[in-house]
Design brief:
With about 170 residues, the protein is of the alpha+beta class. It contains three helices and ten strands. Strand 6 and strand 7 form a beta hairpin. The radius of gyration is 16 Å and the shape is globular.
């Protein structure tokens, strides 16, 4: 009962960005691989060549080598270095043992990635944002006070990646 939500975003002076939000099935890695193949086919048939592509959301992956990732490789770059929380943990499940959540981008957008910067801190490959780990919490604007990542029914940490586009790219 899940599908892909997507938006075509006009980036002034640049190629359009096609942003796809996913919530893949928890049933099995085989099911997620089939979903990845369907999403790849969708992108290849609907997204004009030369557009930027970003796929993000809950992939429900138990490991970084799940078959869903190679199934998406024709349309996005599968990273070898991953966002982390600043303490080296890139897992995004509540107990921080599984890499459920991803932000993947096509090769053209990947080349425009810049470190995530918060005040004096820099996260080279992106940030897995966990309010239980991030310090000093005062770096962040209210209403963040710490502990939100362990709220009742919270199952995921946010994944942040930044990209810099300049006019005409």
């Amino acid at each position: 009962n899940r599908s892909f939500a997507w938006a075509q975003i006009d980036v002034p002076g640049n190629k359009d960005l096609w942003a796809v939000s996913v919530h893949l099935l928890t049933a099995s890695s085989t099911e997620r691989e089939l979903e990845g193949k369907a999403l790849t086919a969708f992108i290849q048939s609907k997204v004009p060549a030369g557009s930027y592509v970003s796929i993000g959301g809950d992939f429900n992956t138990d490991a970084r080598d799940e078959p869903v990732l190679p199934s998406l490789a024709p349309v996005v770059t599968i990273p070898t270095m991953f966002p982390d929380d600043g303490a080296g943990n890139g897992n995004t499940s509540t107990n921080r043992t599984k890499p459920y959540d991803w932000v993947l981008t096509d090769s053209a957008l990947t080349t425009k990635e810049i470190p995530v910067a918060i005040k004096q801190k820099s996260f080279q490959h992106g940030l897995v944002f966990d309010t239980q780990v991030y310090a000093p919490i005062a770096d962040l604007m209210p209403p963040i006070v710490g502990g939100e990542s362990r709220a009742t029914n919270m199952q995921h940490m946010a994944v942040v990646r930044d990209f810099q586009l300049t006019c005409g790219q």
